[in-house]
């Protein structure tokens, strides 16, 4: 969990014309203050991640990456110290190629060890390694090599790889077994943009390919559908709730990319939902699946959780009016003769006890969700989680 600069602030390096929103140490100091002071850190939002365009346009005489001296006059180590003093962690961005995607110095193969040592010396806690301006062969060598180089520094650094996104995200080109040994999280698919269409395209790709992607995820190795854009300009209130719920069901990293200095109370409330974060961070780390796709454009997603609990998301792709959707837990392949306590994740209130056989209805707003947290009150003799990890 944390915050990342890219989607909201991109590669804005014009600090003369736009000092408040340019990629500079000031932006990261201010975001660190917000994470520490506005209730984010206590909920687990601890990473503050620099994305592209932080570096000077040339390496120094010793071949080292250096931050832009005008925009980061104190240096990255001082920024890391500032972030750590607030109980937070600092992430940085690199690219396995001649240049980064934004045209700054990349990490070619001969620089992998040196750059890993530089990041460790700066006390960085996470590295996102992109793949612009590199070949398949360079990526196949470089991504595992960077993992070894980071480990060799002796500093624990979370490693986020963009490797599968550059290989189309699917087997046979992507071997998720090998990937899970090399990286802690990885981008499988396109960059998110500030639009509902972009969110839907990511959701479609992830759940269409869930049979391949779902088994690849688990504690220490996660699929990353990209940043949360809640609090920006492209999503309605309902769509914002939907992104949060669907990312949570996907066991996705929750990396916000929004202006925490001006975020609206409603967006903040969605992002700071305690029960949602608890579900997202469930220790089993099982990625959820889409289990129902109706002709009425209603979809149901299920994520198995620890202690035989579950999260259910009822999602409407409709654009007309609220839809009354009727089903039962039996139809969603829950075990027979079980009883669950149902809690509405957004409202927080406990709806009551529900038997597997009971029909129930939920009202789902257009492009919105209803999300439930189900705890078993009485289970059949054979625990469901032993029989099968995820129904459907």
UniProtKB/TrEMBL annotation:
Enzyme Commission number(s): 3.2.1.-
Molecular function in Gene Ontology: alpha-galactosidase activity; alpha-N-acetylgalactosaminidase activity
A GO-annotated cellular component: lysosome
Domain of life according to the entry: Eukaryota
Principal location listed in the UniProt entry: other
Single Gene Ontology BP annotation: glycolipid catabolic process
Gene3D superfamilies, per the entry: Aldolase class I, Golgi alpha-mannosidase II
InterPro entries tied to this protein: Aldolase_TIM, GH, Glyco_hydro_27, Glyco_hydro_27/36_CS, Glyco_hydro_b, Melibiase/NAGA_C
Keywords on record: Disulfide bond, Glycoprotein, Glycosidase, Hydrolase, Lipid metabolism, Lysosome
Pfam families cross-referenced by the UniProt entry: Melibiase_2, Melibiase_2_C
Domain called Alpha galactosidase A C-terminal: residue spans: 285-368
Localization annotation: Lysosome
Keyword Glycoprotein: yes
Catalysed reactions listed for this entry: a neolactoside IV(3)-alpha-GalNAc,IV(2)-alpha-Fuc-nLc4Cer(d18:1(4E)) + H2O = a neolactoside IV(2)-alpha-Fuc-nLc4Cer(d18:1(4E)) + N-acetyl-alpha-D-galactosamine; Cleavage of non-reducing alpha-(1->3)-N-acetylgalactosamine residues from human blood group A and AB mucin glycoproteins, Forssman hapten and blood group A lacto series glycolipids; a globoside IV3GalNAc-Gb4Cer + H2O = N-acetyl-alpha-D-galactosamine + a globoside Gb4Cer; a neolactoside IV(3)-alpha-GalNAc,IV(2)-alpha-Fuc-nLc4Cer(d18:0) + H2O = a neolactoside IV(2)-alpha-Fuc-nLc4Cer(d18:0) + N-acetyl-alpha-D-galactosamine
Main function: Removes terminal alpha-N-acetylgalactosamine residues from glycolipids and glycopeptides. Required for the breakdown of glycolipids.
Assembly and oligomerization: Homodimer.
Recorded family membership: Belongs to the glycosyl hydrolase 27 family.
Name of the protein: Alpha-galactosidase
Gene from which this protein is expressed: Naga
